[in-house]
Amino acid sequence: MAAEEKAPLEPMGVIRQAISEKGVLAFVYHGHERTVEPHAVGKTTDGKPALLGWQTEGGSNTEPPPGWRTFLLGEITVLKRTGKTFETPRGDYRTQNRTLKTVDAEVTP
Fold this sequence. Notes:
Layout (H helix, E strand, L loop, with lengths): L10 H11 L1 E7 L2 E12 L5 E10 L8 E6 L3 E10 L7 H4 L5 E5 L3
Antiparallel strand pairs: 1-2, 1-5, 2-3, 2-6, 3-4
């Protein structure tokens, strides 16, 4: 690999970078393609790594988007950046963040 080339980021790296840059993510979760504004990554109350985000488009086994969702990282596939960004954290982000016991990275205003 040439010195100027960068190694591809692992899924956690992609998510952390998207959070810091307010970059929109696309991925498959439980058989549905989803588009998500990532707001935080951390661990659930039972210790599983998870992403908290505002789903803007795509399918769902429960409620249709838009809305807040917590996605277990081990169940996310085909993860990629969309090239789109979002402006600021959603106004009700703080009240939604109760799904994560610990937060490793989160979006800032």
